[in-house]
TrEMBL record:
Its cofactor is K(+). One of its GO terms (molecular function) is IMP dehydrogenase activity. It comes from Natronomonas salsuginis. The gene is guaB. HAMAP family: IMPDH. This is Inosine-5'-monophosphate dehydrogenase.
Amino acid sequence: SEKLRVSEALTFDDVLLRPKESRVEPDDADMATRVSTNVSLNLPVLSAAMDTVTEAVLAIEMAREGGLGVLHRNMTVEETAAHVERIKRADELIIRDVVTASPEQTVREVDAMMEREGVSGAPVVDEDDVVLGIISGTDIRPYLEVGEYDAVREAMTDEVVTASEDVTPREALELMYEHKIERVPIVDEGNRLTGLVTMAGVLARREHDNAARDEDGALVAGVAVGPFERDRARAADDAGADVVFIDCAHAHNLNVIDSARDIKAEIDADVVVGNVGTREAAEAIVDFADGIKVGIGPGSICTTRIVSGSGMPQITAVSEVADVAARHDVPVIADGGIRYSGDAIKAIAAGADAVMLGSYFAGTDEAPGRVITMNGKRYKQYRGMGSVGAMNDGGGDRYLKEESEDEEFVPEGVEAATPYKGPLASELHQLVGGMQSGMGYVGAATIPEFKARSEFVRVSSAGQTESHAHDVVITDEAPNYSPD
Ligand code: RVP
């Protein structure tokens, strides 16, 4: 019958990257990419917007490593704004909460204050915040011996090196080295204090030289919002979010598309729309979306395909969407189903610019939730946002048909546990290192080059068996491989 003349759709295990001539050493593969029209990352990796995966703590670490954390939406709108602000302030060059001294205070008082606030120096300002001097532990020490009741005015250094708001980290460091000082007050045209840059702050930022930052140097922030949550989208945007993700299980719903379009028109942040899994869906959103997220049913905790009988195996879904998106120069994110680094780089080969993972990060220290021990092994909770538990806790309307109190949910996700993994940075290191190996095998030094150069071969089930460790008993756990 006509109806059964169906096309085939493939997923990760159905394909492998064809090895090619190469001069690319994996370590040299450049992982920089775009996640949306205006936002670039240094790693093509996002953490899922799930309440057992991404809150501010994990998002900060993701951005410091070069990727992007997408905040879940099982929280109030106020909490969303607060989490975004935490991310944005985390690596701030200019401290805004400056501990200041007044010229009339005694040296003794300032000494106690600095001790209490945990700072080793403070700008001295008048009632109008005009900077008069700066006082440090070194200025204070001699006075503590002979004049602890003298005024700060006497003890402070009154030739202060200041800078303006637009100072760069490099300029600030140069100033500090040149004048042998550890802090530079930031002032406006009236010499009024607006902030402070410290040596310790600049050096801490240097430790994360691969971090994903906005043009002001703050870490990038991503936020999931429900398709009809204009208030959350606006709050996230006002708080400084770089990318807002319209978070929907089926974004080829025309009501969702209308609303996403409205949200896009209202906010400054980039708007990524998803999830979709077909060429037609991509065509319906590509004219206004800043990025398209792909994944109908591949997630490890997702039962959409079983419950609804609908879905698209992920490699085919990504490549259909990518064909459309590439023509409009819109980035694509492959979301869900990634178990190994090999899956992640296959998703990029299929046409994605970045990948999003949930289960891979849920077991890390930075993810919300406690470590639990079962049968002597350590786990952390991981649950689908369409699971009964997540929906009962609030924002799971992604999978909710109707808002009704008394009717039972029809979940499309499960509640589970995932092995405890330790720090996020080492998980990411394994993930990205494996992806870079893939680029080495294909001979591509950048993500765009890899997308163009990579080719797939089809794998039989015998080939799949051969791919995994086989015919041996594994004696030691590898950090990047644990077959189910
Ligand atoms: P995974 O990385 O395979 O654990 O998949 C994570 C993805 O699964 C999420 O980014 C989201 O797209 C999807 N998800 C989240 N909750 C559910 C559900 O309850 N069905 N699915």
